[in-house]
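[Automated response] Your request has been received and processed.

Submitted sequence:
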Amino acid sequence: MASGGEAGTAVSLIGLQEVQNIIRTMQQFVGEVYVPDTLAIAGFYKDWAALGEGLGNFMTYGEFPAKGMRDIDALMIPRGVILGRDLANIQPLDLHADSQIKEYVAHSWYDYSVGKDEGLHPYRGETTLHYTGPNPPYRNLDTNASYSWLKSPRWNGQAMEVGPLARVLMLYASGHQQTRDLVGMALKKLDVPLPALYSTLGRTAARTLETKIIADAMQGWYDELIANIKRGDVRTFNGKLWDPSVWPKAAKGAGFTEAPRGALGHWVVIDNGRIANHQAVVPSTWNAGPRDANGQDGAYEAALKGTRLHDAKQPIEILRTIHSFDPCIACAVHVVDPDGEELVRVKVR
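Generated structure:
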């Protein structure tokens, strides 16, 4: 426990009060600075409300459970899929079904034992590197062949956009009142129609609006924490699950969350007490992955179609749309040395 003015990692009265102060400061900044500034700046770029849409398909794994992650009906951000802008119909999402989520490598620098045109569910996923691109440095890539270190995830064969826009649309479609009020306020302030959400501007605004939604919700979560502590409920984890003697020798499981950039999933297969397969499908894999065997673009590529450049040597228009996704592929690719050899191998005994 922290005492006096000392810093500590354990929960204490001083630490809890600091958390309360941070929540209040955050809510004030988001409400008085972040949201107004976003809308003020967006007013100068309203032409971007009609640019950079992309797929029109959106997916969320769901987040912020009220009764545990297994109770998907009690998630603040619902789990589901929106197809073709149809906000009236949220499609159910089964993250364990072999038929729903698969990764493809038709245009990726990987090989599958079943062939490059077949998809694999992450439980059966393979990561076999096979670089077939030009020797660097190079100016262009042949996009009719393999051209990316990212795989191409698909839901029921459909490319998906994930991230803040997907979450805001899912909340809006599910009837979340604060989301509907904030979206209505933003659209009215900017004098743009609802379809403006499906754009570079809408994607950027959605990040601001969801920050307001989550910041406001944090006070309720904090109040629940304090109430639990007062009732004597100070558990932080299930200690039985950390006892290796009760672990199964063979099992498979998956964990899902909504990272800032979007839907994040890890699938693990255990065989003979060891990890036999571990596949992570990260948000930027969904958004930045290349075309699949059917020629279907990923979210980045679809959003850039039709983009007109004022100056091809300074393609700021491309940057604006890609930046609206908050791009990062650090955990979506695998790093090797110039000779194609892996850099690090970790063994756990």
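Summary generated for your ticket: DSSP finds seven helices and eleven strands in the chain. Residues 110 and 127 are 7 Å apart (CA to CA).
If you did not submit this request, please reply to this message.
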